[in-house]
Amino acid sequence: MPFACIFVPDFPVEALLRAEPALRSQSLAVLEGRAPLQKVFVVNENARRAGMNPGMSRLQIEPCAGLVLRARSLPQEAAAHAALLDCAQSFSPRVEAHGCDTILLDLAGLQPLFGPLPKIARALARRASDLGLEASVAVAGNPDTAALAARGFLGVTVISEGKEAKQLGSLPVEVLFANSTQESGQLLETFSRWGIRKLRDLAALPDVALSERLGQAGIHLQKLARGATSRTLVPFEPPLIFEEVIELEYPLVLLEPLAFLLGRLLEQLCARLEARALATQELRLSLELQNGYQNDESAELALDLDGRGRPSPHNLFRRTLRIPVPLLDSRTFLKLLQLDLKAHPPGAPIVKIQLAAEPVRPRTAQNGLFLPPSPEPEKLELTLARIAGIVGEDKVGSFELLDTHRPEGFRMQRFVPSEPFSPRRHGGTEKNDLHFSGPMSSLNFSVPPCLRGGFSSDSSDDLVTALRIFRPPVEVAVTLQDGKPASINCPKNKEMHGEILWAAGPWRSSGDWWEQEGWARDEWDIAVQGEAGIALYRLVRDRLGGRWILEGTYD
Amino acid sequence: MLLSMYIELHSRSAFSFLEGASLPESLVAACANLNMPAIALLDRDGVYGSPRFHMAAKKARIKAHIGAEVTCEYFSPQRRSATEQITNHKSKDSSVSLCLCGGFRLPLLVSSRLGYQNLCRLITKMKLRAAKGEGTVREEELREHAAGVICLTGDDDGPLALALTHGGMEEARGCVEKLIGIFGRDNVYVELQRHFHREQEERNHAAIEIARSLQIPLLATNGVSYATARERELCDVFTALRHHRTLATAGRLLARNSERYLKSPQEMQTLFADLPEAIANTVELSSRLAFTFKDLGYEFPKYPVPEGETMISFMRERTGEGFQQRYGRSASELQSRARCQIERELKLIEELDLAGYFLIVWDLVRFCREENILVQGRGSAANSAVCYSLGITAVDAVSMELLFERFLSEERGEWPDIDLDLPSGDQRERVIQYLYKRYGERGAAMTANVITYRSRMASREMGKALGFDPETLDKVSAAVSTWEYRDANDTLDHRFRYAGLDLNHPRLRKYFELCVAVQDLPRHLGQHSGGMVICQGQLDSVVPLEPASMPGRVVVQWDKEDCADLGIIKVDLLGLGMMAVLEDSLQLIHNHHGEEVDLAHLPPDDPTVYSTLQKADTIGMFQIESRAQMSCLPRLRPKCFYDIVVQVAIIRPGPIVGQMVNPYLRRRMGREPVNHLHPSLEPVLGRTLGVPLFQEQLLRIAMVAANFTGGEAEELRRAMGFKRSQARMKDIEARLRSGMESNGISREAQEQIILSITSFALYGFPESHAASFALIAYASAYLKCHYLAAFTAALLNNQPMGFYRPATIVKDAQRHGLKVLPIDVMKSEWQCTLGQSALSNQHSASPVALRLGLRYARGLREEAAKALVQQRNLAPFTSIRDLVHRVPELRKDELNTLAEIGALNEIGNSPRRHGDTEKTKNLNKEFVPTAKSATENSKPEITSVPSCLPGEFVFHRRDALWQVERAVRHSGPLLDELPEPDTNSPLRPMNSEERLVADFRGTGMTVGPHPMAYHRARMQAMGIHKASDLSHIPDGQYLRIGGCVICRQRPGTAKGFVFLSIEDETGVANAIVMPDLFQKNRLLLSSAQFLMVEGILQNQDNVISVKAERVLPLSITRAETNSHDFY
Lengths: 555, 1127
Prior knowledge:
By secondary structure, chain A is an alpha+beta fold. Chain A has helices spanning 11-19, 45-49, 58-61, 74-89, 111-114, 117-130, 143-152, 164-168, 182-194, 199-203, 207-226, 255-275, 296-303, 330-343, 377-391, and strands at 3-7, 27-32, 39-43, 67-71, 95-97, 102-106, 136-140, 156-158, 242-252, 279-289, 316-327, 350-360, 398-401, 410-413, 435-436, 465-475, 477-481, 484-489, 497-511, 519-530, 533-542, 548-554.
């Protein structure tokens, strides 16, 4: 049974050359790593001849004249791999992917269709070339021999039956180790010590003695070197794809009819998922817009790559809906999509709708019988989506305190229902909590006892003064006396105005000095005589910008 | 006025290791700027920075208070009950307070010498019982050592803060009461700090309340961690490093603000305007702290003498005995001079009460002699005739007219400095242990070595704190230039750019600033290699002791300069690799030649030694083997011992920078008239032809030309060697000039004298030191010339040391006719050994052959090798399987290495394996001519060289590799017992190139032909000359040389020139590369293993080198040869 192997040498280079074929005649080096510490990952033949090798640093090779440098592109490699698969599958349905750069295919029964083996091999190479990939193609009686020959010989090679060992003999032993693992490294080192450089050297070693030394791994390698392995292909299985598409006869402008169509697609998708006992956590909606319409958002989204790494066409409007728990309710999905589209309308007539669901195992957890009921995930998601639609997506969720002295050092995270609520330990006030402890009396201000916190003798009466933060903070003008604030004046809010009766502070903090966004501030706790009585505020001075703000008020 | 003054009594320096960001000197300088009359230094668990703090404060006329922040123990319940028993026993109402239940830092200030001694003992107790950085003090220890100590309640980590956090007011009050109970009511101060924190102020309220209720004083401090606010950044970095975090992830571990800097009295008064007594109390407390380091109380131990004797009388007797031995057979003139000198020295020693010190050193030397440990005194002690008579030194100070004042001077008020050179390794350890045993664990200790931040460590750690990934860190540290010479562009700034780091990026800019700021700050404490301090009383009452990393050793918290500053006497026990080589050589000579060589009685004028030195054939010899020394030897042409003294001293940065080398050599060769700068200097400079070469001469010049007294001259020496004091040098320079002016010395001569003296600041040898080294150099040369095999074996057994790699030493020995045999598991020991050469005498200059030891098999562990030797001694190995079976310690990789370097070949060729001894003998006979042709012709081609070296003709290296792979694989119990012979393998033998690669990979050298030998015909065709040919080629000829680069050097004194030593099969040639050529070929010249150098031959007075005009890589072998590059 004949097999063919398509192998693309210097695959990352070839993947890049598909987009820029003009570079083929130049020295090209593909770099990996983050600037400025990039290293050469792969080079093309021209660069190799100029003395460049993988592992060299960018600094080392940069001075070389006529050298083109490109960063490694995983999406382009993925696309090249997909193209390689397409090439193989256009000849044979039984295809095995062997890493990114190697594809094996079963040629049994193809000769009547495509002609003799050499012709098929040449056709494969030509097809790969048409797809922008310069590949070596080998045909042999077993898949491993075909793979070795493709890796070892450039161009098209046909290994005649019975002559495998002879033809493979001149190849270096390194071709046996396509992937560098620790084990393969050790074996290569052993071969190097033994002076085994070519496959013929390995093939000539006595079987039993070799097995005594290297075990079955050694025997397997020797069989490979002799071209004497036999195995069946492990066919490439395309991934489960749940995707539905509707091409419209006339463009859709309104969201309501779109919702109707979306509902239909969702029902179909949910039925398919249900049939396979799956649910989904991610829905990807792709809308093709009329007349190549392109707005900023779609352009930005177009940079995102789909699962196969192909760049999206620019007239596509894409939204992705991620749900924290696996669901399988088409009505909930529809409502979520509607809310999302309402917040992010496509902005142009729609000509094609494509909806894909990422399959996952359905939710199986069940809450305890005696635990208080938590909201149903579906309803919670809808509620959150509604709130997000009103206040903005980055303003919904639960906050997470950051370990920093920076005031309001927190970030928002997506809200996920947590384990049943556990009451906080008594007295376990977090350091970063917004509470007031006690002003500095050195500045000779009397402090109302209600603001005293801390180490009073009667600790049972601990009072915590709450601070209500103003959002946004209120900018004020402050008059100073002896370096201390004496009065404030807020043009926008007349209540925040008046003499400062007493002030405690400054409470000084600064940090992140190693970042560009370093900060430094002084806080004062002040009492201001307003019309309605005495008000207590937290007054803050930004020591870098010089701005005064009222950050909040004490209850 | 005093009432408004403020004194900072709680500050820590960078000697709190990663908790403070300023040097003690910076704190003192800041204090002086603020007009503060005193300051206290309280470093964490030690007084590491106190000597520097004291010295700086003395200079700035500021009072330096000493103290420490001591970590106190967390009391576990069990511990607590034990403590309760103790305390209940002492006082009924005492219950262990909760405040002592947490680990806290207790700030302690010493008010008297007793207090200081208590503090040192307290810290020593804590340190010696725990691992590094983990010790804590117990409550009962605090009670025991409370006298003379004043306690503060501390800051964030202090006992009061801890008690407040854990137990509130009551607990805090209890805690302060507890401290009052321990230290006394008058000795506890409630500390207040104001860094603008809400929580801290809250604590202050509580503290004030407690202080008032207990009627104890308040004390304002600022808990200083750095001198200026800017250094807060460094302090944050240190905090991150201490917690193994980055700045970004350290979060609230970092400081909240930058307020822990040294604040002015005015600032502090404003801050504590509501509590003026807290400020006033700082002045009151400062006045109570009477202790300073002037009152350290150090006493050197007394030497026990027989009854009826005093130390000086005992010493006179010993000196008298020594005099007879040393000068008994000398000319009467020398004898009388020596007697005079010794009498003068003894009188001074008696006056200064130093007899005990001399006797202790004499006792050490006596111990070494009794134990057959080679020992030789060096340093300034060699200037003393008493030291010579006592056998401490081997240099006759009288006949060499050495300056005794350099060693000891009445005016200096300083202890003399005696350094003892000992063989490195176990022997030196025995001497150290003897000292410990004799003076007790708390009576002797090693001096510390403060490890400070330098470029590489700074760039790595600052990068780590900023969160750079490991790859970036590697890149940046690697970019830190390792050459000794740095050109103008080679600044830290330049190195950053070279590494591809853009300093315009704010984060990188910050990184750069941090790297610069952290330079020279202490990182941690190491152990000095040999300095030991000894004390009459308990050393732990003079300075805290810490356990060293080596078990059984303790180390003091100060480095040797600090010890010297505080007048603590030390003995340097220095391990010298060459001493070990000499000792091992003597043993090998005894074992293999049956001869006893006495180093003290070597023939003084051995012609072979001097002719070898004149030819600069000095590879492996002590101090005179470097490239620079070799380039000087043919010009200096040593003819007597004093010439070697000069030779050792002349190639030093001092004479080189002072431009003294060439004038001396020219005058020596009669090409320049001798000029003594001034007639009065003739007696001083006469011996060195008017060129000052030694420190003593410079001191004498200062004494003669500028009227310096002996003590002033010594001050000059200290200033020269004292890297911390540029200003001191300037001051002395002015005094020198005025002295010379008054003596009528011309301006020109003055300039020359000043240049000579200031260049010695870069380091020059004292004559006595050079003489001591010259003795060792002569001994090494003598042994190399007369006992090459023993000397080479000893040299190889004490690697790494010296200037050259073992590969070069072996090749040099082979060129001198020594037969070097490869590693063989059937014959080799762990060390290199001597045996009879397999070849007859006619083929080898030496009947003794050197067998490489198993230590040269890379990756082979000593325990595995020793197990192998032990098994072999029981019975020879019959097969590789037998070896694997009997020495299970051997790992597969070790066996593979042994097989690959041919060390297992002999097993395969053993008669037991063949069962035919005669056959093997015949085979051996067959081999001899092959070996002869290879060594005699010295130019085999890579294809024509026989594929086998000695011992590889039947069973070759790959056979062994093949068998090893089988033998290490377990075949199961059934087949395990089946005997299996070492059969030939299906693998082809290694060719010469493969063997070279294997040799260099497995041993770092080859005992076969030099790699260049295989390519000589090709080299000749390329016009490349052999190293041995160069001496016959006229000066100025344009030619090519080529070979393996064995040494690259870019010395700091050579203005960017690079010196290459290039070895081929005939010897070593030198090439000089100009800075511009180096810049053009930087990568090639720094990394290529084999080079061809094209240029002009320079032969000046038989000093031969090639001035490179072009360099090209040579393709010789894939073997990884190694060069010794000097950074």
